[in-house]
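Quick one:
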Amino acid sequence: MTTPQPLQTHVTSADGTKISVTVTGQGRPLVISPGALNTAQDWQPLADALAPRMTTYAVDRRGHGASGDNPQHSIEREQEDIAAVLDLAGPDAVLLGHSYGGLVTLGLALRQPPAAFILYEPPVPLYGPVGGDAIAPFEQAVAEGDLERALAFGTRNFLRMPENAVEDFRSSPVWAVRASMTPTWAREVRAIDAFGDDLDRFARLATPTLLVTGELSPPVLLDTSQRLHQVLPDSHLVQIPGHAHEAYLTAPEALTEQILNFAFGTTA
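Output:
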């Protein structure tokens, strides 16, 4: 059977914002909520790998890619965006949240539990603010139109990347694309800081959950996933060997295997 080509559609969120969705493949639906500096396009390699067995609904979160925006931003509005995509995908949909997109889905899942849930290193602020006092100088760089300076500052101060990693990132082909998305990053970092460090609230989330980590990811993200695993009543923790926070780009086949095992009931 020929796999359908990806198509772009949209849903209308509760506040009227148009949210773009790239639909790929056939089979059980998977809704993807990407991280802060990502769009649906970044998830296309994974969607292509999943296409024979799953229909992927990759979201351009508001203010990203082909989606609209609203100056009255909040993480609750973003949760409504994902809820609208889940309505499109159907009741059997698996919900995947990556990084900041994982915080969006965590909050939504408490109110509207999905059929199954995948979390890839959500940055719950267990060790204090991610942005804090660094947000103001970051926003100044954005206001001055120096988006590359903003991205470099954010990678050092929000992500705590070492200088050699920042320079490697700067020389990568995705640097300019990531820089173009910095104007929405400050509001997302504020939402992370406001999310709180209370994990006990998720103890009532009985949805089957797969927690994905990368072996080379920052220790704080690995620790957060481990602690979520201890709290969530029906969770399974897996690790992608030799990869870090972006295995959907660097190891889509390995991540595909874990998702398929979970979605079709073969996870141990």
